[in-house]
Every structure is written in structure tokens, then in C-alpha cells.
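Subject: Sanity check before I submit

Could someone independently write out the C-alpha cells for this chain? I want to compare against mine line by line before I put it in a report. The sequence has 164 residues.
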Amino acid sequence: MVAEHPRARSRSALALAISLLAVVAASALGGLASASSAEVYRRLEQPAFAPPSWVFGPTWTLLYALMAIAAWLVWRTGPGRETNRALTLYAVQLVLNAAWTPLFFGLGWRGIAFAELSVLLVVLVATVVAFWRRSAVAGALLLPYLAWSAFALCLNFAVWQLNN
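---
Independent answer below. Compare away.
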């Protein structure tokens, strides 16, 4: 086994820290825009398949951690057009992710949030494919996020219809 050069190791650690900070920023932006989201969620008429509000915090914590690790693994594949494309898609989906919460909870625009989440899902599928091409592990780490986002799309639609 070849030892990693100290400079490369510190760049890798910095990249992991940046990746973690990016998901924390996305989470914080969404959270700031709708600090009362748990209360709003409880007041909404819910479909039978809606999880209790306490499920979202732990779920998103895990998903954000997996997302950060996946982005870091892609970054570690080295510079190049494909890596840049994958990380650009990742950044776009992260912005879309952060935008959903203020739309749905902060502004109460459930239909717009549904449309935005639909776009997020398309970009997320492209991100998973791009990540998978760089690192199968990175792509696989995004699959729970993809599944949760697809579930969220169904839940968003149902809540929108029930509260129209």
C-alpha cells in the first residue's frame, strides 16, 4: 500500500470539510426560511402515508451526511471535465434542495414546491448517474436521497391536493 502524501491528505480533508459545510449550508438555509415547519406540517391535512414530523430531522441528517461523503468521493476521482460536470450537477441539486423548504413551508406555495421538487428529482437522477460514472460508491450513496426525494414528491402532491 502506498502512503498518501501529507499535502494530498490535507487537501482531501479540506475537500471533505467543504462538502460537509455545503450540505450544512443548504440545510440551514432551508431551516431559516421556515423555522416553524414542524408546526405547519402538523396543521396540514395529511395523507395516510405521511410520516410524523419527528422523522424528518434524523432522515435528513443521514441523507445530508451521505450526500457530503458522495461529493467528496467524486472530488477524489481527480480533476477533469466529468468530475466538474458531476459536481456542478450536485451543486445545482443542492440549491434546489435548499429552495424547496421555503417554498413549501415558508410561503405555502405547495404547487410551486411540487414543480420545483419535480425539477430537483430530474437533476438528482442526472447527478446520481454522473456520480456513478466517477465512483459507484458515490452514486450508491445518493440512492437513499433519490428514494426519499421521490417519496417527498408523492407526499408534496398529496398534501397540496388535500389542502387546496
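---
OP: Matches mine. For the report I'm noting this point. The helical segments are 6-33, 37-43, 56-75, 81-106, 110-134, 136-141, 143-162.
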